[in-house]
Amino acid sequence: MSSSLLRYAVILGLLSAIGPFAIDMYLPALPSIGQDLGASTGAVQMSLMAFFLSVGFGQLIYGPLADMVGRKPPLYFGLALFALASIGCAMAPNVEMLVAFRFVQGLGACAGMVVPRAIVRDLHTGNEAAKLMSMLMLVFSVSPILAPLAGSAVTAFASWRAIFWIVMVAAILGILLLALALRETRPAEDRVESGIGSALAGYWLLLRDRHFLGLVFIGAFGISSFFAYLANSSFVLIDHYGLTPTQYSLAFSINAVSFFGFSQLNGKLGSMFGLARVMRVAVSGFAAAVVVLFLLVLSGIDGLPVIIGMLFVANGFLGLVIPASAVLALDEHGEIAGTASALMGTLQMATGAVVMAVVGLFLDGTALPMIAGIAGCGVIAFTLAQVTLGRRRRPVAAPAE
User: Fold this and answer.
1) What does pTM read for this prediction?
2) Above 80 in pLDDT, residue 147?
3) Which residues contact 347 (CB under 8 A, 6 or more apart)?
4) Mean pLDDT computed over 278-295
5) Position 398 pLDDT exceeds 50
6) Is pLDDT at 218 greater than 80 in this prediction?
7) How far apart are CA 388 and CA 382, in angstroms?
8) d(CA 284, CA 286)
């Protein structure tokens, strides 16, 4: 492992993790937020959905901007906006203001999600890119593994509002890290032909590329299965199964360990068998695991060990799918990597928001609606993989300059 690869993985992973840290850290506090603000479960979940929506659609701006002005300026702006919105969240007097500031916070957070993927494409392609992306995700894993534990510890000794002061400090540290440790990977000469017209042409090119869209939506439904768990697991595991916030955090971390642990095999398996084959097998394993889990829960075998154990297996397969789908989708679009990364992120976050909304319509206090949503995502991802990876790639004409 080269020192340069490791350095970029650490820096990009930490910058990418700041936004998700603001999600994962406050998950154990969702029930207490509702009690403190006198808000319903649905209203509190809106603060989560508002964040996802703004992260998704904000990327459409940051991606082309990163192609036009370079990778670092959008990151500076996004982190600063995130820090200011975090102060608003910490001081929100009611759930409506919390939802509004979470929306603004998401607009800042999405810079750290879209730009690092473009930087990976600036530096590497193919298996090397998959290796860097997987290492980045390993660093990124500090959020879902440690953030819920940190959140439950904070709420045990202080108010849930302290969580947002902490993520504000994290954003400021991110700005310092960006200034001192990351070089610009898109030089000025590469930005000459980048503008609003080229961004629109790039989006039009990508929206006509069925192979790109297929890979994006394989990843989208894989990620959406995690979003369905993210939005509902604290209520199911704490309210239905009676876990304490700390126990919930540990259960949440188990699945994150599986996801990020298996993701580290992408580079090695990709070099041995090819990324496309690895992803196709992994999608099949993921779909099989979540469908079996759904059938078990439907038949009444819904003990907590069953759910955690099967999700551990499923998320291991998913850890092979997400990095590979991103690398394969961006591989042929290096000249517009920021735009392609933005469209990918927007479509995936929008898909996740829709899945969360649909699952939310069927909430009944049990695990079944959540598991059904996860299984549905697995089946759709499997079907898309057979269609996308089972046919020959047809090139899409590049847009006219």
Assistant:
1) 0.75
2) no
3) 56, 213, 216, 217, 220
4) 95
5) no
6) yes
7) 10
8) 5
For residue 362 the two structure tokens come to: 């069927």
Which tokens belong to 4? 């340069």
Q: Residues 75-113: pLDDT tens digits?
A: 999 999 999 999 999 999 999 999 999 999 999 998 988
Mean pLDDT for the chain overall: 84
Buried b (16+ CB within 10 A) or exposed e, 267-299: bebbeeeebbebbbbbbbbbbebbbebbebbee
What does the alpha-carbon distance between residue 286 and residue 108 come to, in Å, rounded to a whole number? 32
